[in-house]
Structure formats: structure tokens, C-alpha cells
Input
Amino acid sequence: MTKPCDAASPLPVQDGFFMPAEWEPHRRTWMCWPASVEPFGDGERLFAAKQAVALVARAIAAFEPVALVAKAADMAEARLSTGGKVQLIEAALDDSWARDIGPTFLSNGAGMLSGIQWQFNGWGGKYAPYTNDKNFASRVLTLAGAKFYEATLVAEGGALHSDGRGTVMTTEQCLLNPNRNPDLSKEEIEETLRLYLGARTVLWLGSGFSDHETDGHIDNIACFAAPGRVIIGMPASRSDPDFLPAREALRRLKAARDAEGRNLEIVELPQPKHPRASWRGGKLPASYVNFYLPNGAVIIPAFDDPNDEAARSVLADCFPQRDMVQIDALDIVEGGGGIHCITQQEPQV
Output
């Protein structure tokens, strides 16, 4: 029976649950059909994003099942665009970023699945309404037949990354932002991540990243590729607004140790050589770190950039046993997120 945990209920860590690594086997991928024009600025960009989302969904479906959630009015469009390759689920939505509004799935390593419903406030109050998205995670967990824990922390899935061995990575720019958790200290947030994710070590990267839509989500900056190995996106030019924040993130990672006490092996992933402006006028948040790992594959963003192939090559070296599938993600990124942002893995437990 799926049910929330009240104040008297055990916390995930007390029940033996932890956040597994993304590269571990999946039961399926959850996605959402784009539901709002606002992040994309106009209907033409929204339409282009829908076609790109459908392409990603069909690519993932070649490796594992995909559950695609769509509003009632969009079901026919989603069905036609995905060509029968995915499972369609009708549900109310405000937006489309499954990573952020979906559950953070947990495993106990012994065949049981659960997940977290973080508090959601529209990415720090940037978008409204978000009534449907606020409880989307618990609805997904109900469909998955999993117990859910409701956390008090305001967070999104894209703000957190786990090595599945007790190390979690995030950024100060997001979780310490006054628009998320103004009354919580860094130590209090760390304690919440320990209790809900099974984290024994929290690696904090800093601030100053140009991604103001998410306030510096970690999944656009750095990620684990294996226990003890971290991929970090490195801008190609000193003129890039993310150059100095990325160098500081690199410095912190070089000085860090994971939950097992290891120094980290760091893989520098080149970022697009030619940064682009978004329709809003700022830097387009195009990052090769924003890839996804379905079973047996790496779904890599492409940006019509000279570094597309270099990024693919680096990721192929990191994941030599996986197929490399590179997909044009520019139309998705115009909405403020990438391939990782539109996907959420459900572990195979």
C-alpha cells in the first residue's frame, strides 16, 4: 500500500532505503509531455520541444520501458508523436520536467522500492501555477506501487546526484538559495539529505553558475560516472560566464573525499565551444553533463556545436559497455532544461 510518512513514521534511512546510482538497472523511465508554453516563450518553440521530447522517449524505449505522462488534452498528440513506443498515462500536469517534479526513487538493496516527494515551489517561485506538479511525485509512486516519504526540504530531483554508495552531490546555489530553504542552515539541509537519501557524505559545489532557471542544478554541472569518479563540465573559454564557477567546482572536487574516504577521479567534459543565447536573452543552459543512462546506453545531448563529437568521445570512454546515442537537444534546452531534466529513472529492485 502506497502511503505518505507522517512525523511519527520512520525516515527512509531508518527503513534501510538509500538513493541508488543512475547507472544501476532500471525498471523504466518516467517522462512528461510538455504541458506549458511559458518556459519556451511561444507555441512554435513548444511544438519543436515536443518533437524533441518524443525523439528522446523513442530512443530510450529501445533500451527500457518508458512511461510518458500527458494531460488529457495532449494524449492524442503524444500518442501520435511517440508512435506507440511508450506507455501513455493520462494525468494533470503544469509543466514537463520529470526529473524535478517526479520522485527521487529509493531502494533498500533487497528488492523494495520507495521514493521521496520533495516540497516543490516552482523552482523558487519562477513559475505558477504548480498545484499539479507539487504532488506529482506521490502520484507516480502510487502508480509504481511504492511507499513514499514526504520531505520538508524544498528541492528538485535535478539538484541531487548520488553515487549509490553514500555520497550525494549538490550545489549551494540551489539548496541554500533563499527562494528554496531560507530558514534552513547548510548543516540542517545536510542532515535532511542523510536521513532521506542515505547520504554519509554531501559534496557541495558552489554558486555563480549562469543557469538561473534552476539556480544551478547539479545535473547541468557535474555527475558521478562510477563510485569514486566524477564528470564535470568545463567551459571552453575564459569569457564563458560559467568558467570561474566551474573552476571553483573543480577545485572543491579535487579536495574532496567520498563516503568511502577516496579521493575522486575527475573527468573533465568539454562544454559547447560556442555558447548560445536563449530566447530570454541569457546564456542557453546547454550542457553535455545533462545526459541520461537508460539500461545499456548513454543518451547524449548534441547542440550543433564543434564539441558535440568531443563530448561523445569522453562519455564513450566513461561508459565503454554502453551504446552511445546522441540527440539534438537545442529545442529542449530552450525551455531551461535538458535530456536528464526530462527523464526520471525507476530502479529495478
